[in-house]
Every structure is written in C-alpha cells, then in structure tokens.
Description:
Chain A is an alpha+beta fold.
Amino acid sequence: MADVLLTNVHKSYGHVLAVKDINLDIKDREFVVLVGPSGCGKSTTLRMIAGLEDISAGTIAIGGRVVNHLQPKDRDIAMVFQNYALYQHMSVRDNLAFGLRNRRVPEKQIAAAVDRAARMLSIEPLLDRRPRQLSGGQQQRVALGRCLVRNPKLFLFDEPLSNLDAQLRAQMRLELKELRQRVPTTSIFVTHDQVEAMTLGDRIVVMRDGVVQQVGTPLELYRKPVNRFVAGFIGSPSMNFITMRVAAQADGFTLNCEGLRFELPARLFSDLGRHVGQSVCLGIRPQNIRLGGAPGAGYLRLKGVLMVNEQLGHEQLLAIRAGASEIRIAGIDPDLSLSAGVEIEAAVAMEHLHLFDSD
Amino acid sequence: MTSIAIAPVRADGFFSALAPRGKAVLLALAALAVCLLFSFPVLWLMLTSLRPGTGVYYVHRGTEFTIDNFHEVLAQEIVLKALFNSFMISTLATVLSLGITATSGYMLSRFKGPIPNAWFSSIYIFRCVPYVAWVLPLYFVTQQLHIFDSYWGLLLPHVAVHICFFSWIMKGFFDGIDPSMEYAAMVDGCSRWGAFWRVAMPAAIPGLTALAILCWLYTWNEFLFALILTAHETPILTVVMAQFVHELGMEWHLMSATAVIALVPALIVTLFGQRYVIRGLRV
C-alpha cells in the first residue's frame, strides 16, 4: 500500500494538450475517483500513473518513489481495464496466476493466492474455464481477481463497469465497495458516470479538457461546487442554471431575468456586490425545490407553468417554464396528479442557491 | 379529381416460391456445378498422369491406364532432389517470413512515428513494383553475392516478397486484437517484448496459421523466381516439371505425374489448415 503524488503532470500529443498541470496527493488506502466527460484526460492520467503513457512534464511518485521512468511492470501496480483485457488463450486460473508467474513466485504460493482470490470473488467454479465462456460480470470478477492475487501497492480501474448493463453495474458497485472494505489498498478509479464516482470515491477529482476542476469528497462536490461545470456534472437530475442580471437595492441585491425576479439579502450574498450591473448564473438543484408557497423569509418563490412530468415510481420529475427559463424539480410525490399547463408554485431555500460566473 | 397511385404488386421470385426441399436440391446442384468447374482441370491432370505416353491426347476416350509414369519420374534423381528442395525452401521461407512478418505487422499495428511510417511506405512502394520487374535485378544481385543457384539465393527473394505482401495482412490481424491485453500483461510483469510474445502472438495464432499456409503454398507453387534464380545445383519442382517439355518433344504423361506428386503435400497442407485459413482471413 502506498500514497500517490502527482506534481505538475502534463501530457501533450504534438500540439494537443491532453492533461494540463495536474497536482494530486492521494493518501495511503484512499479511493480516489477521476470523473469527467469523454476526452477530459482522466484515462490518460490513469495510464500515465500506470506507465502505459509517457508523461510530457512533471513527476509521478508511488509510495515515495518517483516512477516517471519505470516500466509498468516495475511500479507494483495492478489495473482493471474497461473491456477486462483477460488473456483469451489462458484459463481463468492461468489468468490469475500470470502476474505471479512473471515474478517467479513458487507454484505452491501461486496456487494458494489464486484459491484465496477466487474464494473472495466467488469464482472458484470458473477457474478451469476460458474467458470467452464467461458472462460480462464473471469476466469482471476475474479481472478483479487478477489484481487482488498480486497484492500490489496500488489498484487502477479504467472504467471497469461501463461494459455492464445497468443492473449488473449496480451490483458490481456494491461488490467493489464491499471488496474495498476487505482489501483497503490505495485505488484510483476512472469513470464518466457521476453516480459511480459519488458512491465509490472517498474523494472525487472532476476533470474537464485536461484540467482538474475540483477535488473533494462527494458531499463537498455536491454541496459546494466551485464552478458551473462541476455543479452541472455532479448530481442527477442536473442542476438548473438561470442567467440573471444583478442590481443593487437598499439592503441587498435583486436578480432579474425574463419572468423571474429574486431579492437576496446582502448579509448572505455579499459577493454579489462585485457583479452589480453584470450577469451571473444562478444554480438550483432540482431536489432543493419544493412545491407550494415560500414557508418563511429565507425562501425564494418560483412560479411557472408545468411543461411535462416524468413518473419514476418512487418520485416524479417536473419541468416547468418560468419566464424564459426551464426549471426541473425532483422529489415530487409520485401520487400527486398534475397535468401539463397547470400553474406551479414552488420555493427554494436561499441556503441552497449557488452563484457562478456567467459564461 | 384526385388520382390514386397503385403500387405494383411484386410477384414472388422463383427461388422463394420453391419448397424448402427444392431449395436445398437446387443449392446442392449449384455447389456441385461449381466444384466440378474447379476440379475439372485437376481430374484431367490425374487422368493424364495415369495414361501411357501414347494415350495422353485421347484421355477422354482411352481405356488403358498405368502407374508407370509415377515409377519413371520417381526413378529420376532430379525429381526427388527437386521435391526435397521445394519442400525445404517452402518451409524455410515460411518460417523466416512469418518471423519477420509477425514483428513487422505488430509494429505497423501498435506503433506510430517516423520508423513505422517509413517502413509502411517502403512496403507500399515495393508492392507497387510489378513482380516480374524484380526478377532481373535479383538475378544480378544473387550472382554478385555468389548465392545464385543456392537455397539462400531463392530464399531471400521469397522472404522479401512475403514480407511486403503479408505485413499488411498481419497488421490487420493485430488490429483485431485488443491492445488492452498487452497493457494488462505489461502491468502484470511483462516487458513490451514479453507482452508481444506471450499475449499478442498466441492471440494471433489463427491469423499466423492462415498466413503460414498461404506462404508455404505460394512458395511451393512459385515458378518465375525458381526458373531465373536456380540452375542445376538447386533444382526446384515447378522448374523440373516444365523441363518435360524439351526440344525432343513434350512428355505430358511424365509432367502430369510429377504435377500429381506435387499436389499431394499441397493438398495435405490445405486440408490441415483450411479451418485456420478461413478463421484467420475472417479477422
């Protein structure tokens, strides 16, 4: 087990900058998730840590040792790939033993380690099969087993659940969490799925266009996103954004746009003073909007017309039009009967408002 | 007044109107016709090889058959030597070509940069040169290197041609193999070379087998290089066969018997490997 330190790591392909100036300090036994849309540089970062890509600048240290010029085999890491990357010409048993045989571990120890990993992942009956005879979930377990059997310093996961169907993915997520409690090795997990990131990560690194946007715990990212991108990426349904113009008034500020006007007290939103006369982006999570009038002074009132409602069984999602803005509301009682065109009154607590620079 | 366009009713085709049994019979007949078309020259060759020298022009109506032709050709030292040489050169050329082609195809598939690009361009240029145009320069080169009429004098040109023709096909095989397996092997303790040897090569075995068979058959059947680059020291079967046509006449019966003998190893290789050829070329 080891900590991982990335210092000013760059990666460019010719003139194209894939990863820009990443600084990351991953503690021993920590599970860190790199998340972001396709092409944001998360997989490139992981491959640089693995040694499968050269780095253009900066240093990567694993367990206090700079590994920039070490081959992947010398970094004492294990990696699970998106498509499992099992050796098709070998049995499951040989797949698991491959890494240990390369390190010339005695066969007796290999057999014991393989049996232990197989037992842990419940793949004992599959040991003599070939990978192509296994289902997606079973292949995924074998790929995990191949990592576990070597007891490395660091686990790397490159979107390992993205080839599974939704149900199996949810199950594998749980199994990964459980496995992590039993084998608390430092891990870096890459995904584009924010649900996976939120559920698995001790800390999450949100990336966009090769640049780290924010690093924090799942709750920090959800509650205090530093910019509009993070706010929109984390949380489902996505946060509502309304571009509004700031004006000063006697004891605070007003935010205005077509069909909406909010009054905000200066004591809670002192930062708005710098934006008077300019536009800002107001963010409200769909889960933070409640139906009905404002219950107190610390709330903003929203009025709009219901466009559509989506029934999910355990809740309803509403999309309402307020002026020129479309606002989504989540967590509505599924038994509440609402038809399109009806006027909706809702409220949101001021403490749940997020303000970002307008792009 | 509105006009209504009526779509023409499509009549069922002849084939779809047939009963399933009728379809099967028709397909079997078509397959038989194609088989006959391709096997006719071979059957004719076999019949000719079993006719006496006087009967080869009446193959279709003669009744006299003999295996003396086979005895006669197999009694000739040059035929036996040619059989051995052809077999050795085909096998050695296959082994050498595949060794180089596998690494060449892997490089073209997995690596980008000036060296693979230059290699790719060279192969492309060599492929553009007509095959026949190589023969005369190769004759002079083999003379200069004192390898004319030797194994090396024939092997090296064959290997060069195979590398140019088969590197692209090999690249295609490796393109079809997921590179993640090699990355996993590298993380699991292999060097890049180790990952190629222990993971990529076993995965490419169907493709390699297909290429080996094609390569062997190509060299076994090759005539032009053998004719120009060999003489009395290293007789090659295809050239020896052609020498049954000489200034004193044409010994079709002996030529046919030699051709039938030459068919046997090729047939064995094809029967053994057709499964791999089909699977390999499907990649």
